[in-house]
Specification:
Blueprint: E1 2-8, E2 11-17, H1 23-26, H2 29-51, E3 57-60, E4 65-68
Antiparallel strand pairs: 1-2, 3-4
Length: about 70
């Protein structure tokens, strides 16, 4: 778990990033359910893009570059 400062609408906001190891300790049951639904929605959107043969941008954290695939 770590805290990151991001700028939202010209206001610095502190966001807590929770890793999967401490997920159950930090998040409520409703938050975990919402997180699971969000993950499934992203997977469905990627699958739909693949079926429709649309390009999907992917970010490589090691090289810090974006590719279309």
């Amino acid at each position: 778990m770590r805290q990151v400062t991001v700028k939202i609408a010209n206001v610095d906001t502190v966001v807590t990033v929770v890793d999967s190891k401490s997920k159950k300790q930090v998040l409520t049951t409703n938050d975990i359910e919402m997180d699971t639904r969000a993950e499934k929605a992203v997977k469905a959107a990627l699958q739909k893009a693949k079926i429709c043969k649309r390009p999907v941008a992917r970010y490589d954290a090691t090289s810090k570059s974006v590719t279309l695939g």
